[in-house]
Amino acid sequence: MYAQVQRAGGMVRGALWYQGESDANPEAAAVFREKFEGFIAAMRRDFENPDLPFYYVQIGRFVNPGADPAFWNRIQEIQRACEPSIPRTGLVPAIDLELDDAIHVGTASLKRLGKRLANLAERDLYGGTVQSGPRPGEITFQDTPYGKQARVKFTGVNGRLTAVGRPAGFTLSSGPDGPPISCVYRVELPADAPDTAVLWLQSVPENPHLWYGRGFDPCVNITDEADMAVPVFGPIPMNPAQ
Asked: N or C: which terminus of the chain has fewer CB atoms within 10 Å of its end residue's CB?
């Protein structure tokens, strides 16, 4: 890659990166963050630009019957966690996009993905106004006559949260490594709280943790009005006392 850039004149304004699928295993996942941070640092060093913008795609869906998705989700969560901790980076989700085979995003969805990446580059390099897209923030609980609600507030929302059809994708677990518990029976995107998803819960497990897009091939459909999607996340600890 370095040699190709030099042959083209050596000037790089930013980087787009889509990788991580082959690291979804115990050995590679254990060192993924270290290697990812090192790769970004090396690229910035080699191209003599310590502030080089680096935009990357969170790995998306994979139709893989019978396999354990734990390390797939681990890579997705590491990718999400890197964005706020590595300056001048931006994450773009692909989890809500259509596939053309068991793992590769189809043409129409690639165009949507490209627009999401372009939004971040335009924001940082050309004065664009599109924000990062929804990122999970504060989680609070509220008692109602029908049981508990969990209110998940997002940052980086353009306009308001939206979904085609029934908003979907949230699950809970008991502890960070527990199996998914389907206790969310309804998700609302209230008009008076455009940055919030309200989860109606049939029950709250012990030591609850929140996930979005858990598994290889989840059904998720929440974006904002700029078509910037909610990324896969979890496990995020929840405190029912809040």
From this structure: N
Total count of residues recorded for the chain: 242
Supply the pLDDT for residue 242: 67
17 and 40 in contact (C-beta within 8 Å)? no
Domain at 2-126: CATH code: 3.40.50.1110
Nearest to 85 by CA among 37, 39, 154: 37
The closest of 93, 122, 121 to 109, measured between CA atoms, is 93
Quote the tokens at residue 134.
């929804």
Say which DSSP state 176 is in: T
Q: Would you call the peptide bond into 235 cis, given omega within 30 degrees of 0 as the criterion?
A: yes
Other C-beta atoms lying within 10 Å of the C-beta of residue 178: 15
pLDDT tens-digit profile of 188-205?
999 999 999 999 999 999
> pTM for this one?
0.95
Q: Provide the 10 A C-beta neighbour count for residue 99.
A: 16
pLDDT value of position 235: 98
Give backbone dihedrals phi and psi of 34, rounded to 5 degrees, phi first: -60, -45
CA distances, 17 to each of 57, 59, 130, 150 (Å):
6, 11, 20, 34
Contact 198, 149 (CB under 8 A): yes
Domain residue extents for the chain: 2-126, 135-237
Give CA–CA dist 3/87, Å, rounded: 26
